[in-house]
Design brief:
Elements: H1 6-11, H2 15-36, H3 42-58, H4 60-78, H5 81-88, H6 99-122, H7 126-153, E1 161-162, E2 165-169, E3 177-178, H8 180-204, H9 216-240, E4 244-246, E5 253-254, E6 258-259, E7 262-263, E8 265-268, H10 275-295
Antiparallel strand pairs: 1-2, 1-3, 4-5, 4-8, 6-7
Helix pairs in contact: 2-3, 3-4, 3-6, 4-7, 4-8, 6-7, 6-10, 7-8, 7-9, 7-10, 8-9, 9-10
Length: 300
């Protein structure tokens, strides 16, 4: 089956080596730039480079999805940064992403991309192979939607609504808070990923076989919808299971275990379940939803 891999079709017998060189050429300068601008820590750059190159080798469509998330999230994190400083104090981590954040945002989609590769190599089940593609897209759409919703939502002048009780309002930056502006940004982020993937797939015509091209117009947009649902799952997990704390000094609510140089007191959720867990599980569950959508190809 290796003869059917994209790089073999494009470059011939030594296609894997040519594709690897291209992947290294694209990724290494990108993450050197990310480190120099303090978008990522050193170890986060290493992990991100591995995920980027591995996704590229499986199929460039997965790489482009990661690339779209990485660029848009970093641009939005820097957007009106001064206006966010007081609110971002609630968040567990700042703008420079570490290893766990990279894995939380990228591992879900990579798992589905790898599952697609294994299905492609060891079986001839096109429906399931395609379904894992939609799952990978949904996972990236989720973390994109979450980032867009958070970075835009905290700039809203109005207090967000509490997702468990929409008649109640909470402070901006509170896990589980949703606002019209943030929700709109999350929807645009998720749909933007699916539209980008749809355009790339139509042009690239790989990895979805031509015999199932009709599925593009149904299941890739549904993957974007699954990503938007994933953003709500993220908020639900943030409002219920994620640990949220109160500072004993300034009495502010925060995701941090240490605030004002003093240990904080947990007020809800589990202290071990952090924002990185929320990001991973919401993206993974959105991928499962999109995988379920894709499996309906058996019935159509």
């Amino acid at each position: 089956m290796i003869m059917n891999m994209w790089f073999t079709e494009w470059f011939g017998t030594w296609g894997w080596l040519i594709a690897l060189v291209i992947g290294l050429t694209i990724n290494i300068p990108l993450f050197v730039w990310a480190r120099s601008h303090r978008h990522l820590t050193i170890f986060a750059c290493i992990i991100a480079t591995f995920l980027g190159i591995a996704s590229w080798m499986i199929n460039p469509i997965f790489y482009f999805a990661l690339f779209a998330f990485f660029i848009s999230s970093n641009l939005l994190t820097k957007y009106r940064k001064k206006d966010k400083q007081g609110i971002q104090d609630k968040f567990e981590k700042g703008g420079e992403r570490d290893t766990s954040q990279v894995l939380a945002n990228g591992l879900g989609s990579f798992i589905f991309a790898l599952a697609h590769l294994l299905m492609f190599i060891f079986t001839d089940n096109v429906i399931l192979s395609n379904a894992f593609i939609y799952a990978a897209i949904a996972a990236i759409a989720t973390v994109t939607a979450d980032t867009w919703g958070t970075e835009i939502g905290i700039l809203s002048n109005d207090q967000p609504f509490w997702i468990l009780n929409l008649r109640k309002k909470v402070e901006r930056g509170t896990s589980g808070g949703i606002s019209p502006k943030g929700t709109g940004a999350a929807f645009i982020g998720a749909i933007s990923v699916s539209v980008l993937m749809l355009v790339i797939e139509i042009i690239w015509k790989n990895p979805i076989p031509a015999s199932t091209t009709w599925q593009l117009y149904l299941f890739i947009p549904l993957a974007g919808i699954a990503g938007f649902i994933g953003a709500f799952i993220d908020s639900l997990l943030g409002a219920t299971i994620q640990g949220f704390f109160k500072c004993q000094v300034c009495e502010k609510g925060t995701e941090k275990k240490i605030h004002c140089n003093e240990p904080t007191i947990i007020t809800r959720g589990q202290d071990w379940f952090r924002n990185d867990h929320v990001n991973f599980w919401s993206s993974f569950l959105a991928g499962v939803i999109a995988f379920g959508f894709g499996c309906f190809g058996f019935l159509l």
